[in-house]
Write a structure and sequence with these properties.
The structure is a single chain. The protein is an alpha/beta fold. It folds into 3 domains: 2-126, Rossmann fold, CATH 3.40.50.12160; 147-373, Alpha-Beta Horseshoe (pyruvate-formate lyase- activating enzyme), CATH 3.80.30; 379-433, OB fold (Dihydrolipoamide Acetyltransferase, E2P) (Beta Barrel). Helices cover 34% and strands 22% of the residues. It has 14 helices and 19 strands. The chain has helices at 11-26, 50-61, 64-69, 80-83, 87-94, 110-119, 165-169, 177-189, 213-221, 241-249, 266-271, 278-291, 310-323, 350-373; strands at 2-7, 31-32, 40-45, 74-79, 100-102, 124-126, 147-151, 153-154, 173-174, 194-198, 228-232, 256-258, 296-303, 327-332, 379-388, 393-398, 403-406, 416-425, 428-433. The strands form 5 sheets. It has a 6-stranded parallel sheet with strand order 2-1-3-4-5-6, sandwiched between helices. 42% of the residues are buried. The structure holds S-adenosyl-L-homocysteine, iron/sulfur cluster (SF4) and FE3-S4 cluster. The site of iron/sulfur cluster (SF4) has 10 residues, from helix 7.
Length: 438
């Protein structure tokens, strides 16, 4: 039997879709397929911003016809949007053809829910408030070779005032240190070349034995083998010199830190409940760059938070200049029901928000291009991860997170390849394979 999974949202969700595929495989759905050919279609949803939800609503709605025409087709919808207050009910009312609705905490039960659906006509709904400690027994079907995602923790306790994640992913829970290390060891043995440790806020990791995140990272990077390590996401309030020291100690850890700053003005940062200042953020970057001069930093930025003035927005622009980010994800504030910020007065009009994001994106892109241009004529080592049919080229990322394309006669996917950069087109690099180290 065939399956099709549609995933929205962050890397956490991409990895959870791999776990969903693992559960489906156990249930006899063992071949991924197109939407039309599938015997079960699973939507793994996101609700971080309104447009993420609108996409899912549109695409689920479009299945009505297929469901009517294809006898036996199962449609399951899970993930963050389903966990959101009132949304499961709304989905059920709007799309009565959905067979299974499962919240973020119910993912491990999906197999049992499929069984249950076989015995009852009406939709099966599973919405718990909490998830168990770990997920032993789920074997993800990994889809991102040579990269592998490894959860180190779930949930978030930070309650940034704009963010829905703490409501839909629940409280922080860390996985056991030994369990994580065993998973990484086995992935490395299986030939995975890049391990990304995942958590909404990795710095909050606390193993049962008291292990901190820097200690865990140190242990992961000490595992023998030819692989590199990434981690995300870090929270600036938890930045520590200990983390920098561990990064510096291990060549296996990529010289890249994703450190979402969100805004450049202290009043807005306070309203966001981020618990650091612009000055503290820049000081921490200075420490990082003093210790690891080539470390690249990327970030997330939100414009048009309630009451943000033009002057305050300009502080986000000036921060982008000062912080020298390699790239940034940029978002317009999206009010999420149930969060503090959604109740704040002083919403910014759509026109102003669009104007701000346009200016911010232009600045971020020009900085990214500037950085790309510095690569010209230089060498960098990428981990080849895929083939781009349209370009007729292989591609991969260097440790700094920059994408490089190149032509190659053999199939080098899974190899570390040194490129000599011959062209830098905006965010991407183009090069030729070169001998020797980068
Ligand atoms: N745990 C991570 C990722 C959170 S979601 C972190 O703390 O950084 C990824 C990004 O989405 C956030 O960093 C933020 O920039 C953005 N985001 C979250 N909620 C948002 C909202 N309501 N409106 C606009 N952007 C939002
Ligand atoms: Fe959301 Fe803040 Fe938690 Fe990140 S740290 S998931 S932005 S609440
Ligand atoms: Fe979206 Fe949930 Fe991730 S809301 S960004 S899929 S944690």
């Amino acid at each position: 039997m065939k399956y099709h999974i549609v995933t929205y949202g962050c890397q956490m969700n991409l990895h959870e879709s791999e776990k969903i595929a693992g559960i489906l495989k156990e249930k006899g759905y063992d071949a991924p397929s197109s939407l039309e050919e599938a015997d079960i279609i699973v939507f793994n949803t996101c609700c971080i911003r309104e447009n993420a939800e609108n996409h899912a609503f549109g695409n689920i709605g479009a299945l009505k016809k297929l469901k009517r025409e294809k006898k036996g087709l199962l449609i399951a919808v899970g993930g963050c949007m389903v966990q959101e207050e009132g949304k499961a009910k709304l989905l059920k009312a709007k799309f009565p053809f959905i067979d299974i609705l499962f919240g973020t905490h119910n993912l491990p039960e999906l197999g049992a829910l499929i069984e249950k659906k076989r015995t009852q006509k009406k939709a099966v709904v599973a919405l718990s408030e909490e998830r168990g400690e770990t997920e032993d027994g789920i074997f993800p079907v990994r889809t991102s070779y040579p990269n592998a995602w490894v959860n180190i923790m779930y949930g978030c306790n930070n309650f940034c005032s704009y963010c829905i994640v703490p409501y839909v992913r629940g409280r922080e829970r860390s996985r056991d240190r030994e369990e994580i290390l065993a998973e990484v060891r086995s992935l490395v043995r299986d030939g995975y070349r890049e391990i990304t440790l995942l958590g909404q806020n990795v710095d909050s990791y606390r193993g049962g034995d008291g292990t901190t995140f820097p200690q865990l990272l140190d242990a992961v990077a000490s595992i023998e083998g030819n692989f590199r390590v990434r981690f995300m996401t870090s929270h600036p309030k938890d930045f520590s010199e200990e983390l920098v020291a561990v990064m510096k100690r291990h060549a296996k850890i990529c010289r890249h830190l994703h450190l979402p700053v969100q805004a450049g003005n202290n009043r807005i940062l306070r309203l966001m409940n981020r618990r650091y200042t612009r000055e503290k953020y820049l000081e921490d970057l200075a420490i990082l760059r003093r210790e690891i001069p080539d470390c690249e930093v990327t970030t997330d930025l939100i414009v048009a938070f309630p009451t943000e003035t033009e002057e305050e927005f300009q502080e986000t622009l000036s921060l982008v200049e000062e912080a020298d980010f390699a790239s940034a994800f940029t978002f317009i504030f999206s009010p999420r029901t149930g969060t503090k910020a959604a109740q704040m007065e002083g919403r910014i009009s759509e026109d102003v928000a669009k104007d701000r994001i346009t200016r911010l994106v232009a600045l971020v892109n020009s900085k990214t291009r500037e950085k790309s241009a510095r690569y010209l004529g230089k060498r960098t080592e990428i981990l080849c991860e895929d083939y781009d049919e349209k370009k007729g080229m292989y591609l991969g990322r260097d440790q700094y997170g920059r994408m490089g394309y190149f032509r190659c006669e053999r199939n080098p996917i899974g190899e570390f390849v040194t490129l000599k950069i011959t062209d830098a087109n905006g965010i991407s690099l183009y090069g030729e394979e070169a001998d020797g180290p980068a």
